Amino acid sequence: MKKFTNISDLKDLNTAVDEAIALKKNPRAHVTLGEGKTVGLLFFNKSLRTRLSTQKAANNLGMHVMVMNFGDEAWNLEYEDGTIMETIRSEHVKEAAKVMSQYCDIICIRAFAGLENKEEDQAEPVLTNFIKYATVPIVNLESATGHPLQALADAITIKEQNTKKRPKVVLSWAPHPKALPHAVANSFIEMMRYQDADFCITNPKGYDLDPEITKGIDIYHDQEEALKDADFVYVKNWCSFEDYGKVNISTREWMMTKEKLGDAKFMHCLPIRRNIVAEDAVLDCDQSLVIEQANNRTYSAQYVLKTLLEN
Ligand code: CP
Hints:
The chain has 12 helices and 11 strands. With about 300 residues, it is α/β, with parallel strands linked by helices. The protein has 2 domains: about 5-145 and about 295-310, Rossmann fold; about 150-290, Aspartate/ornithine carbamoyltransferase (Rossmann fold). The strands form 3 sheets. A 5-stranded parallel beta sheet has the order 9-8-7-10-11. Strands 2-1-5-6 form a 4-stranded parallel beta sheet, with helices on both faces. Bound molecules: phosphoric acid mono(formamide)ester.
């Protein structure tokens, strides 16, 4: 593995999950592997879990960690080729990526979708330019279109909690006061393609995700029908793909309730808005896996960093 920007970069998802579970049992087993190595964490957007769990993962491998918040600490980067740089963008990614590659052995980047221009978001200017110009491996800490470290943590959580040969897993849209990107849902879907599971998506009409990503997967616009006999329910908001970046409905009807959840396990990547995305009774019950999903972010990141160091 030379980079980790999508689930498909893993050689084998099942092996990754098993090795991550082994790391969870003995987190300091490879504490000398990262000795003398530095990981740089570049944040263009806010974070709690990703920032702390990736630092913890790197520490477990003996790595040194450098963190930079681009919002207020670094020069604004330019990504276009041939631009006359007379705006507030005072440094080109060509230099920035090469310079940072001298300081870091691995560079991890969080850069969300702007949700104003679909084509620009789909092109992933930050991630693709760092991959192009950096001379060290790049890790995606959530980009415009994907959050693979979250999806790997979710795969670990499902493996740990599953009791069935072929569980039913439902990705269920939820209301949210803000327009949110598609990254978590996209990577969860990508990850579920490797699972032996009965998987479907449910969302209101007008909120179908990118058809390239959902190709061949059943999409229900009737949430009740989709949730029938579910073993795992992954709840997430996303804005419209068709009417890109918009939230055109304010209905609470799609909020996850204890009654709708039935006997299924509840999953969400966090942060979550209580009593909008899911009611308190869901988050506070034993069926909620959200805290364990966040715990597994450490071992998902540790597996990825360890694999990149070994390569
Ligand atoms: N789930 C997740 O990525 O959390 P943060 O945005 O807090 O990093």
